[in-house]
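Chain A, query sequence.
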Amino acid sequence: MKILHFAPDQKFIRLQQDLFEEAFPISNSWRIQGDSEKPFQYEILAHNTRRVPRAYYYSEELKKESEDFDLLIVHSMTAEHATGVKTVNPKICIFWIGFGHDYYHLMERQLGPLLLDRTLQLDQMISKKDRWLRLLSPWRVTNAFKGRIQSLLSQNNFVQGDPLIEVADRIDVYRISEAEVEMLQKVLPLFRADFHVHHYYTTEDVFDKGPKEMAGPDVLLGNSATATNNHIEAMELLKKAKITGRNIMVPLNYGSPLYAKEICKIGHKLFGNLFNPLKKWLPIGEYNQAIENCGFVVMNHRRIQAFGNINAAIYKGAKLFIRPENPLYKFYLSMGIKIFSIDELAEKGLNALTPVDNRVRGKNRAIIGEYMSRKNTIAHIRGLEKFVIKKRTGQCGQD
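Chain A, predicted structure.
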């Protein structure tokens, strides 16, 4: 089976390449949008990968080469990727892997506002500041102008509406979090694709790197410099709990630099030197080393985010607090995993920051370790072959 991948230049793609190569050796070709003269931002397996310009996704080249592939895997449904989906041979089986940004906007009515009040105010302020910076920067203006010209020249070739909705009828198989499947089916009732489990991280490749445990008095807060972390409300909650002598570790090494800067200001004001932002990207082993003393993890998202970070924290024995409206809350409880609600932290304050007992830690570790194991992940990937067969026989989406 030959597999074509549309993927972004992101830190987790290298592991995906390894997993797919193990599942289907010498069968994968990766296409990543970008300038062919620029190096990849993150480590990428080079021998079966090449950068492609935006025009590739509506080109005769793609149309022709797609005839040689059995399966197209779309790692997030961007406008470019959706255009590529429309361009490829209609006989190819298509597996869409949702990244959140490509479908969360469709679920807003079910999830409610993703930003809490204080964070929303900050986000609006940052948006205004960013617009002014774009207006005042010659470099930004020049690039924006070039981008606009390129967009006008090619706009008739790209999907004009919502990328996912535009190609929903072409998707044969999809992956989002299992906790979100029912919500997506409600907002896209005519979506007939088959759901298939797929993991971006594995126990052996990510969770086992670095220290075996996350144990100690410190708190890990959030996963990125994005407003959906609702950092401000979480920090105010921790401040109200009157925690003392505990480092607050806050990953801000990807996302919005303007947002990261503002969160640092607020964090240092609230916690002084105990506020420790992680501003630089670290290899997974070094990152796990940096947070090994975080026996407590606070994720204040109202949506599913930081899935890898959260699973790693559970696996390593940290006490996890997430919002009860986050779909992951009920999902973990249904798996038999012991986690805690942000509401408990709000009600009990400092008394909530007691470690989970060893029995619970062991059970949590076993469940996550098996669920995210490399063996199971490889098996899921190999299981994609059945959908290719179903596509050939016209049975996809009929379960």
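The first strand starts at residue 3 and ends at 7. The chain has two domains: 3-106+162-198+376-392, 203-372.
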